[in-house]
Each structure stands twice: as structure tokens, then as C-alpha cells.
Amino acid sequence: MPAKLILSMDGVVLQEYALNKERMTIGRKAHNDVVIDNLAVSGEHAAIVTIQNDSFLEDMDSTNGVTVNGIATKKHFLQNNDVVEIGKYKLKYLNDQPTQTTAADFERTMILRSPVKPAAAAHADLGGITNTQVGLKPAIKAVQAEATGKFETTGSPSAPDSSAGHVAVVQILNGPNSGKELELVKNLTTLGKPGVQVAVLARRPHGFFITHVEGTSYPVVNGESLGEHPRQLNDHDIIELAGIKMEFYFKS
């Protein structure tokens, strides 16, 4: 059974939603998957990304914010019986399947920084691709983490793509870290610039898929906007995300 959300207000259940899409949005506007017609709810308030048995909640820069179990949050790894509150409405998350990731793993994002002029930022020389735990460390620690320039992916380790007999790789094509490679040896990798544009690369039994998670604009694959739906990646696809171009391919 897929995970689901139970929408209620004042203890009265209003609707039940199965999380049967990789990305579902919550908001006041009619195009959302979960529509809450209330002025306290932003047009596009939040999104839930579900990868296999794991679901992740993202606040989409809403006006009134999101709380989970009474705590305000911008990003949250959902666990069974979590209660998401948006205004006066509650969304209870139910999932009886074992998860494959941890909350700490999802907080790690490989940050992509587009090339900037030296005067644009005092720490511009720290590099273009870094990894930090966004929102979990003081700013100085985040800067120190950025300075390492190390790659890191999220999720549980997995074997190379056996169907192709090769390891999947993302190679950076521009910016200070042009030419650097990231081997996609784990089930889940988040890429991007938090608050601007973030995408998830998910490893499935039949290949790798990219899904938009955060940001008003969508990632671009081979010159075409990704949109809200996940897209399977093919050998030598070109991804544009947060001002950075990268190539997805398989290597021996």
C-alpha cells in the first residue's frame, strides 16, 4: 500500500490522498494535488516528493509556513504518523512500509553555485560545488563545509547499475568545478541551491530519474524544461540546474 495523507480540520476528516505520484503539491490553487481552499494557505504552499518508500516535505516559500508535529520546518523527512499543519488544517502522514533513508541523509544537499564575479560575494572563492547540511549547522560551519569541496550523496549505498553494467556519473561542465565527477552510487541524491532550485536524482531498478523538488523554475534536460513530472535520464543527457550544466552518463 502506498503512503497516504489524511486531511482534517477540527478533528473532522475531510479527504484521503494516496501518495502515488513522485511529486505532489499542496496549496490553495486548483491545480494542486491536495487543494485546501483557505486564504491562510498559499497558492502553492508545499510539496511532497516520494521516492520508493520515502517521502519528503518541502515548504515552497509559503506565506504562513508549515509545521510538522508542532515544529516549524522548511524541509522534513516524513515518518509514519507525522502531522503536517497548514493553517487550521492537518495532514496526517501514514506509511507502514520500511524507509530506505534517514532524516539526516535528506538534509544533505550537493550545493551547486553558478560562476559569480569576485565582488558579488565575499566567499565566492570557496568553489562551485559543495556539500553541507542546510539549516542544521551555524553559518560558519556551513561555510567550512563548503570549503572542503567534497561531493556527497544521500540515501543508502547501492550497487552500480547492473542493467547497464556501468556506474552512473554526473560531470560538471561549467563553473569553478568544471570537470569534476560525482558517482551516483546511492539511491538518492539531491542537487541544487536550497531556496532557489533543487532536484532529486533517484536510482530505480530500471534506471535513474530526475524530479523537481524546490524552486519556481524547473531544471532543464537537453534544452527542455523538466516540469512537475519525473523524467528518466539517458546516457549523455545534459542537465541545467541552478546555473550549472552537467552531463549524466555511464562509465565502465
Structural write-up:
This protein has 252 residues and is mainly beta. Helices cover 6% and strands 46% of the residues. The chain has two helices and 24 strands. The model is unreliable at 116-164 (pLDDT under 50).
Key descriptive features of the protein:
252 residues; mainly beta; 6-stranded antiparallel beta sheet; 46% strand; elongated
Number of helices: 2
Task: Round the mean pLDDT to the nearest integer and report it.
Answer: 75
What is the strand content? Answer: over 45%
Task: List low-confidence stretches.
Answer: 116-164
What is the number of beta strands? 24
Global shape: elongated
Category by helix and strand content: mainly beta
N to C succession of SSEs = EEEEEEEEEEEHEEHEEEEEEEEEEE
**Helical residue percent?**
under 10%
Distance between the termini: 37 Å
Entry summary:
The protein is mainly β and 252 residues long. 6% of the residues lie in helices and 46% in strands.
Strand and helix layout:
Blueprint: E1 4-9, E2 12-18, E3 23-27, E4 34-35, E5 46-51, E6 54-59, E7 66-68, E8 71-73, E9 75-77, E10 83-86, E11 89-94, H1 103-107, E12 108-112, E13 129-133, H2 139-148, E14 154-157, E15 167-172, E16 181-183, E17 186-193, E18 197-204, E19 207-214, E20 220-221, E21 224-225, E22 231-232, E23 237-241, E24 244-251
